[in-house]
Amino acid sequence: QVQLVESGGGSVQAGDSLRLSCAVSGGILGAYGMGWFRQVVGKEREFVATLSWSGSSTDYADSVKGRFTISRGDALNTVYLQMTSLKPEDTAVYYCAARPPSGAENYTPRGATAYNYWGRGTQVTVSS
Q1: Distance (Å, rounded) from C-alpha 101 to C-alpha 86?
Q2: Three-class SS of residue 100?
Q3: pLDDT-based confidence at residue 21 (cuts at 50, 70, 90)
Q4: Where is 36: in which H helix or E strand?
């Protein structure tokens, strides 16, 4: 059973940076396509960033492009979301998600239904 645990959230000021981590256990290391999503109470879960299972491709929501970076750690069992130039509108619960290595090696789905496994989330609060 694949388990995902997010960490690194917190309360920061606008313009600050944070790095979220997602620890992956219970599966084949480095074999999963990974994604980050976020959700504000009362709104739908929103795509943020994704990394293909091969690690060859990434995709970002327009709202975070150029500010956020998704990457995989050297040990392949951790995925990061480096967030810079944070804005109050980035405030949300951030979720890590994983999907089995199906499809093309550069496949980077944005839809939440493409992901089979989810963490419980970590809160990020950005104040102005």
Answers
A1: 31
A2: coil
A3: very high
A4: strand 33-39
